Amino acid sequence: MKTPQLTPYLIFASTCREAMQFYQQCLGGQLDVQTFAGTPAAEHVPADAQDGVLHARLETENLVLFGSDAGSQPVTEGNNVALSLNCSSDEEIENYYAKLAEGGTVTMPLGDTFWSAKFAMFTDRFGINWMLNYDKNEAAQ
Predict the structure, then answer these.
(1) Average pLDDT, stretch 95-124?
(2) Topology adopted by domain 5-140
(3) Phi, psi of 76 (to 5 degrees)
(4) Which InterPro entries does this chain map to (predicted)?
């Protein structure tokens, strides 16, 4: 089994697109941005946040940086950064979820998503925010 990729995930209060474009100008790379509008996540954010960023990915040869707007959630120092662990199998994501979430607070239980991935969000017992993702489409290739 290969080692999973650990990626910083930045959470913004409606400035994700501007911030990620700034980081792209500074660091270079390819920036991909998906808004809340037109996704199942849109029903969970107010109308004025529909054009907000659901998920952004900035990738260079040596760097991957994720970001999103918080939608209707407040952003405070401490909840604006998470560690995103990209897994390569059902077994791997289930194992990490069981271990890392133990004694913590689950925000989104491990389960299937509309983007064809298995995903979870939680804060571990030390106060660190985590996102676990297993992209089933990449595994099928």
Answers:
(1) 93
(2) 2,3-Dihydroxybiphenyl 1,2-Dioxygenase; domain 1 (3.10.180)
(3) -135, 160
(4) Glyas_Bleomycin-R_OHBP_Dase, Glyas_Fos-R_dOase_dom, PhnB-like
